[in-house]
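ugh finaly. both done.
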Amino acid sequence: MADFASLGLSDWLVKQCKQLGVNKPTPVQEHCIPAILEGRDCMGCAKTGSGKTAAFVLPVVQKLSEDPYGIFCLVLTPTRSV
């Protein structure tokens, strides 16, 4: 299994993850983070609690830290059905 640094996240973001107790990426994060950092479109599907939010938030935050005016991100989430 990869670590966050090997996925391309900046050292400061890896450090923040560790401080929050998030030490290893989940499968959805492993697949989505590198693609998003490369600027590719990405669609992830995984169970609740699998780390989907961090899978798109971490690379978006990194890109915003590099150029706050140069990123466009659209996140679509379905509503929960009862």
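ok and the 2nd:
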Amino acid sequence: MNAISRYGHADLPTIRQILLDVHADAYATEMHDPFHQTEKFAWFVDHWGARPSFDCVIAFDTGQPAGFAYGATAALGRETWRGHLSPTPTPGTTFALSELMVRPKWRGTGLAQRLHNTLLAPRPEQLTTLLVDTTHPRVQALYETWGYHKIGERQPFPDSPLYTVMLRGLPDA
């Protein structure tokens, strides 16, 4: 792996197509599902990329994008842990990890954890939240080895899968 590069909100026009191309490769076998099609993913890229706190890292191997991770500070009052924790954490302290994707050729190499750690290392938020498709228990188990805990389930969109809500960073979690 040659490099992992960091990008922000202003860089979205430059990296957008890279994200779409990696997604198309990573989800090639799931394109029959409308929720995983490129057009839907493009909407998510634009949605997250429009946030001033958008943060993205992309791994390149000999110039070829191998994977990426991105997210942003969770919108106050819209954190995915809401409704699952009592008492609630301090507002404004949650980073929402929206996407972590590795192209098939680079899976099983430790790249996902490198992307995850590189993305989160400089983040000021105390908590990190993410969603994992409930039909992917191995992915959930991997995140648990990285310090995440399941706190509930939710279906954020009528056409989306049911997701496990995971959280990292609570002192008693």
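summary for the 2nd one i guess: Residues 3-168 form a domain with the Aminopeptidase fold (CATH 3.40.630.30).
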